[in-house]
Design brief:
GO terms for molecular function: oxidoreductase activity. The protein is of the alpha/beta class. The protein folds into two domains: 106 residues, Alpha-Beta Barrel (TIM Barrel), CATH 3.20.20; 114 residues, NADP-dependent oxidoreductase domain (TIM Barrel), CATH 3.20.20. Helix content is 33%, strand content 12%. Strands 1-4-5-6-7 form a five-stranded parallel beta sheet. The protein is globular.
Length: 252
């Protein structure tokens, strides 16, 4: 999945150009990466490195129009440049707004979701609307602090939560002769959620695929569901760019 622009007027020609650089005639999935629009960097000709204020905050585009952007997304499907289109980090209100005018509904909503942050209300809404959920950080992102620091931000406010060491998860893993990571992935899969764990270690990547030869019991699923901490479980609650949270469309 690729994403480039949060303004329709900056859109045209972008997808075909990026597909050319990827040496592809189309992409499988094209996402709106975030509901927040950032100011355009005229010098670089990109949204990827937005200009900053004197206080060091990113400059935001308060005129973000999700419906207009979605219409441009639909045109990419009609042009054959992508097979499916979706959103990421969108809340219920924002998805509802798109669905009211969409000719092509979002194929997926990619959000932070894992054992302690199950987003049950959003999941229920998306399931009813026919929008699949794709979970990033399905293992709780044990490397998040390092990622935040690499972006030049303090990681002091990141909630210290590690579901891989949760006693309940460890007990269930022992019972099935699986790893805690495999239990976390299997839990989401049985909830009907697609998972995209990230790893650079070949053995862990291979292990993450080894989740289809067992099934969690109803009791085990209930026990894991009860570990949800709702908003308090979000590891990505701290904005990854200073100032982005001031945008009127910043998801709650």
């Amino acid at each position: 999945a690729i994403r480039l622009s949060n303004r329709k007027k900056k859109w045209y020609g972008v997808s075909s150009s990026r597909s050319h650089h990827l040496q592809l005639s189309y992409v499988d999935l094209y996402l709106i990466h975030h509901p927040v629009g950032l100011a355009y960097n005229e010098e670089e000709g990109s949204f990827l490195n937005p200009p900053k204020t004197l206080e060091g905050k990113v400059k935001i585009d308060r005129t973000t129009d999700h419906v207009a952007i979605w219409k441009a997304m639909e045109e990419q499907v009609n042009l054959g440049l992508t097979k499916a289109i979706g959103v990421s980090n969108f809340n219920i209100r924002q998805i509802e707004r798109i669905l009211k005018s969409a000719a092509i509904p979002p194929a997926t909503n990619q959000v932070e979701m894992y054992l302690y942050c199950q987003k049950k209300e959003l999941h229920k809404f998306c399931k009813k609307a026919g929008v699949t959920i794709t979970a990033y950080f399905p293992l709780g992102s044990p490397g998040l602090e390092r990622y935040i620091k690499d972006m030049g931000r303090s990681a002091d406010d990141i909630r210290s939560l590690n579901p891989l060491e949760d006693p309940m998860v460890e007990n269930i893993a022992h019972a099935h002769k699986k790893t805690p990571a495999q239990i976390l992935l299997r839990h989401l899969l049985q909830l009907g959620v697609a998972v995209i764990p990230k790893s650079v270690t070949p053995s862990r990547i291979e292990s993450n695929f080894d989740v289809f030869d067992f099934e969690l019991s109803t009791i085990e699923m209930t026990e894991l569901n009860l570990l949800d901490k709702e908003k308090e479980g979000s590891r990505f609650a701290v904005p990854y760019m200073r100032g982005i949270e001031e945008h009127p469309e910043y998801p709650d």
